[in-house]
Amino acid sequence: xxxxxxxxxxxxxxxxxxxxxxxxxxxxxxxxxxxxxxxxxxxxxxxxxxxxxxxxxxxxxxxxxxxxxxxxxxxxxxxxxxxxxxxxxxxxxxxxxxxxxxxxxxxxxxxxxxxxxxxxxxxxxxxxxxxxxxxxxxxxxxxxxxxxxxxxxxxxxxxxxxxxxxxxxxxxxxxxxxxxxxxxxxxxxxxxx
Length: 193
Prior knowledge:
- The structure is a single chain.
- The protein is an alpha+beta fold.
- The chain has a domain at 111-189: SH3 type barrels, CATH 2.30.30.
- Helix content is 27%, strand content 22%.
- The strands form 2 sheets. A 4-stranded antiparallel sheet has the order 4-5-6-7, with no helix packed on it. A 3-stranded antiparallel sheet has the order 1-2-3, with no helix packed on it.
- Strand 6 and strand 7 form a beta hairpin.
- The chain is flat, with a radius of gyration of 39 Å.
- 9% of the residues are buried.
């Protein structure tokens, strides 16, 4: 009867014998003679090269000036449903949009938090030093932003008016149901954990 110890020794010797025989067989396959490869490369290089067709001729760009508008035809670059300038000016005069509001909407660079709806932003804290206080806002993507009075947030041109420990007050510029621009007060409260 074969003991467990003897059985393990036999398996180990079979494994070692198999490994050595595989190694010896593979080492016999190695040859440093590459003369057949050199001959094939020489034959391939000796063949005449193929003919490369020339590049096609590039036609010069011909500019086209659209002139049908001069013949009282419809201009294709103007939307057919867009109001004319006269109508737009009349509507703008009575739109409730002050010069200050227009400058805030049209003539300044948008800030990062203005790409999110106001109700999707969360106040998560505040920071302060001797002369200023910042609010900490988390956007829907999970990024945290530091804001202060004078910054903007939300899609309705929400200008931050005050930063308190428990809320941020801001003023938005929105259109009412009649299409007139008006200012609206808003706030974001500190979110309790």
